[in-house]
Write a structure and sequence with these properties.
alpha+beta, two-stranded antiparallel sheet, globular
């Protein structure tokens, strides 16, 4: 069986060259937390998730800090043991956090999908595929024009992207309803999570 170019790229990303990736991450750490890039680093993954090299598609590289989240306890008086921060376990996965930050920075674009490109001791790095729903090239494309409708706005904030659904436990929701975590925002508020 003859393999295509994308299959070889996919195989190479299963065991990436760590020295090359380490050099890239040194540059990425110097850049801003959200950086617009010209073309995707993992072209095979981007194409599989819906990316096309045409007007209206934007690729962002997002850097997210690893580790737990801390809630500051400012203004607490008393002994030292009462002044410590409380560590919170984040219920969202880091990929969803990266998508939400990208959507917040570029509020005129919609998040299509995202994928992992690297990690070090301090950070995770993701590339987020964004789409401009107002571009005529997007509106006339049959395969992507669904994102222009109002019901698909703010996908990352509402937890409708692939990474968000996985984090919410909705990937296997049809097979077992017991695996469902936060089916809606209203349920989130009701359960106090």
């Amino acid at each position: 069986m003859v393999k295509g170019m994308y299959s070889y790229i996919r195989e190479a990303w299963k065991k990436p060259d760590m020295s090359l990736l380490r050099e890239r991450m040194i540059d990425w750490r110097r850049d801003n937390a959200i950086t617009k890039v010209e073309k995707p680093l993992r072209i095979d993954r981007a194409r599989a998730l819906g990316y096309k090299a045409k007007k209206g598609f934007v690729i962002l590289r997002v850097r997210v800090l690893r580790g737990g989240r801390k809630r500051p306890r400012a203004g607490i008086k008393g002994r030292k043991s009462r002044k410590t921060t409380i560590r919170k376990t984040l219920k969202m996965n880091y990929q969803w956090v990266a998508e939400m930050r990208a959507a917040k920075r570029y509020d005129n674009l919609e998040v299509l999908n995202s994928y992992w490109i690297g990690q070090d001791g301090l950070h995770y790095f993701y590339e987020v595929i964004m789409v401009d729903p107002d571009k005529p090239e997007i509106k006339s494309d049959k395969s992507i024009k669904w994102i222009t409708s109002k019901k698909n706005s703010k996908r990352a904030e509402r937890g409708l992207t692939s990474a968000a659904k996985k984090s919410r436990g909705l990937v296997r929701a049809g097979k077992s309803p017991k695996l469902k975590v936060r089916p809606s925002l209203r349920a989130w508020n009701r359960r106090g999570k």
